[in-house]
Amino acid sequence: MLGKFRRPLESHVIPFIVFGSAVVFCVYYALHAGLDVNWDLRNYHIYSVYAFLHDRLVYDVAPGQRQTWTNPFGVLLPYLAVMFTKPVIGSVILAACSAANILLIYLIACQLFRPALLGGRWVVQCLAILCAVAAGTGPVFLSLIGVSMNDNLVAACILAAVYFAIRDGSAVRQYFWSGLFLGLAVALKLTALIYIPGLAVAVLVLNPRRFHRQALAAAGGFLLTFIPFGATWAVYMYRLFDNPLMPLYNDLFKSELYPSVALKDTRFIFHGVGDFFPKFSEIAAGAHPTTEVGMVDLRYVIFAIFLFVFVLVLLDSLLRRGRHRGLQDSIVELKKLLSLLIFVVTSLLLWGLMFGIGRYAVALEQLIPVCVIGLLAVITQDARRLLIMSFASVALLLTTTVPANWARAKFSDSWFELAIPPELQAGDQLFVMLSGEPMAYVIPYLPATDRFVRFEGNLPISADDGLGQRIKEIVAAQDGPIMTLSPESFDEETSSAALATFGLKKEGDDCLYIDSNAGRLKSCRLIKSVN
């Protein structure tokens, strides 16, 4: 009688234990790492939501640079955490969300292995837990625990989509759920579109006869989340600026507010398929070709090596024993493994060739250990050797990985510890933001009647642009004080020529300072120049 209940009990209890352990780990890591003050948080994560809620999208001009008009839905949770909770509480909330990724990797791994051929479910559980541990200690994933960047949340949605796509059962509704989570991922961050082709091919390989029904179900789920949380923002942006992705891809949308150029971050893009292994080797050596900050990760190199060996073993199996027997004797669900490999490899190629930004590949970083252990299962075809090699591989990752660091500070009673002089709290002031450094995080803490404009940074604006004309109109209409806003070390003289094109010049050297845990900002007086 006890045996009848043991398996259901294990199948329900162990995932809860994994998730609970993941929550504890993520919260501990976030509190140990310190308070998040990353560049994007200071540049637009706070401002984009604040601007939408307080009707400032056209009141100010580009204070968050090219990210000013990003969909606020993607950073709503960090905004609420920063603005309405204590830093420790907000960090705990943000960190706990990352635990979902670890649980999903565990669930995906449980789908890959055959308990009957491995000697029992305990072997599957061990392998799945090893996958979860490796996924939870990836350098980019770790760096994003408890921070405002939503890449871990996007990755969780992608992992959920993968889980529902490969799980046991052929019910069409599971593909609806897969599409629903994929739509949510794309709504959170449009760059998640790169995962759609790989997932579509993976589903086709798993069940080609029912693919059309599965695709329709997935499309329905996708639209159910993407339309309200993503498409509506694009429509809103188009109504405001004639560009649904303002200011990106304006070479296509031709908004009169900005030149017809394709703004794109090309710093990390891979230059062809032949660039992948060298880049993976650089990541292993700590050269961080996919991130702005340092990190070390061997998983991509290990994956590439084992993938090559797997292809050789699979070809040998097909030639020597025949396809049918090779599939039957495998201790891994080979069809699911192939689908997962197709998804990972296809998505890796699209990611590297289109973006190459490490944060956009968190889901792949976490799936690669699952793929590696799955490849080892095919290569070894022995439970004992598989466990030994899996432990060794995960141990190697744990001992060599160095996580990235996007800027942390000590915890205190307020998130930014802002100290604003009374002179800057009078209201009705116009701030001209200079340099390319992130400063828009101070805007919610200044009077609502202040206005902010910016023509420098990663969205350069000239006086002849549509946005530049708006800045000139705002300057001309300003009767109150006009002040600069820049980092303390910034030399305003480097901006004097640009200021002159907007009819402004600096007056004297008497400046005010805003202190924060993210650095000191300077505000100096400007006056309108005589043409």
TrEMBL record:
Annotated localization: Cell membrane
Domain of life: Bacteria
GO molecular function, one term: pentosyltransferase activity
The UniProt record lists the keyword ATP-binding: no
GO BP of this protein: lipopolysaccharide biosynthetic process
Membrane topology: Multi-pass membrane protein
Keywords assigned by UniProt, alphabetized: Cell membrane, Glycosyltransferase, Membrane, Transferase, Transmembrane, Transmembrane helix
GO terms under cellular component: plasma membrane
Membrane-crossing segments per the record: 12-31, 88-110, 122-145, 180-206, 215-238, 298-316, 337-354, 360-379, 386-406
Record-given protein name: DUF2029 domain-containing protein
